[in-house]
């Protein structure tokens, strides 16, 4: 292909070409366009040593073929790891190694990759894959006490590459595992100073005012206040703990198929590193609630000072690029027990109140939480520009550490992907295009982890001990104490308002629509492909206590009960989108919770335009791991704005019976259970 230099066509460097099928595997084919050497007329390739400024010069382009594996059986996927295909998408190997635990166990992969000698696969290719695996995902080989998988790898490398770096890495990893096991045993006997203790069960306090006041006094008598320390000290220690926990996160534990199993019976050990970040998030939220609510006899101006200090701590966390504790503090300040303290908020100074509103906009629900995503991307882009702008030969400038992200955003993206895309395709083929999209998110988590190693903060045992000793209030206790501090009254216009209405997700529709055609969901190597393109997590509002509409004062929660304490939760909503491979069939991703005494825990399910209420109820009960789920025993309601609900008839088509203008939040209740909320019937 030749074009004159002055008339170069603005063609995309990567163009979708179609699909190929080879030995039962499905590939998406793209053409990569690369500019080669510039030549003038009459010059040959050997005569030109530098680009010619001649206006009559020509631009030469070379087009290469790139194949991205979309679906195949497990044996074919393992063969692709070591095939050495020059046309293979370079992201295949890292994507497989990062996500394989979602569809196959490590020992099964090793059984196919490491047959008894002599191996039918090229040893050098297997050695290369094992080297990447050991370096990038060492925890895949953690199998105490024998570590049999690592033993198989060491045996293979012992004869295939005894002097190679891969064998040395395997030996070092085994030593690290043994040392880690010894340290864990010592930690069980003597916990670390900054270990975050799990939240203990709380004994409900009496309903009387005297009982709540006694509870407040106990909070003060139990130890020093976290707010007795300076703003910088508290923010730095929170950042130290968050960065330490984020560095320990194993990315594969964030996969939607893994994280969504955490509440099933016998799954207490699933995703321990992710659970630790959730525990830390809830601990910080509980500290804010306890310090603001747990002080007897404080006047509104005194309590306002506590609010102001937490706002300044949140601002300092923002300066330290710690978005995890920033989100936790804001979630507590926006929770109903604190948010409803109108007199206290009315006494907050103008400057911290303005800061609070600006910080709250970071995690605004508008435009698919675009603000938080853009800010996090800007932080990463700034670091990359500083690395690029460093002159050759000069000392690299010291990059700011972090950022520590709010992990809930990535968890929600991965859960949404797992819900919306099937694991298997027709012909019992593994949907590897789904795994490639998941890897794009996991790769970003790994990149952020590398940046978090730059923090140079020292632990302060007094602050860490105070944080550990802070009593955690339950939802019911927080609400009762809040009502004692300020009984329900008319709303005050001085209370800050933070919008929480969920916006429709447009990027999910685009991501799935690309799956319908022959082109891949994201062209390999295309920088425009979003790495995180679904609705992020946000603390949900309880259906019983809805936030007020925009530009209106917050209403009193009334006597109906406490609102949900903001945990690290998954909040999502999406528009109607086409189902992959099924023309004319539309779907929505909806969230369904069960009305019980365990809070409003939502599960996401895919609702098609052909689903009737019994099948939706049955799938929702299975998602919630309800023993002996009988769909006929439950009634489905859609949660509407204004504390209203839409009753879905038993045999109705849920897709068309639901209100399209409301969010896709639903509630299941047993039919014999009375409910006093105003319900509307579909017309």
What are the salient characteristics of this protein?
683 residues, alpha+beta, 7-stranded mixed sheet, 6-stranded antiparallel sheet, 23 helices, 42% helix, globular, disordered N terminus
Describe this structure in words.
With 683 residues, the chain is α+β, with helices and mostly antiparallel strands. The protein is 42% helix and 12% strand. The protein is built from 23 helices and 13 strands. Strands 7, 8, 9, 10, 11, 12 and 13 form a 7-stranded mixed β-sheet that branches. Strand 8 (586-594) and strand 9 (603-608) form a beta hairpin. Helix 4 packs parallel to helix 6 (165-189) and helix 5 packs antiparallel against helix 6 (165-189). It is globular. Mean pLDDT is 74; it is low at 1-9, 45-52, 192-213, 215-221, 392-397, 498-584 and 674-683.
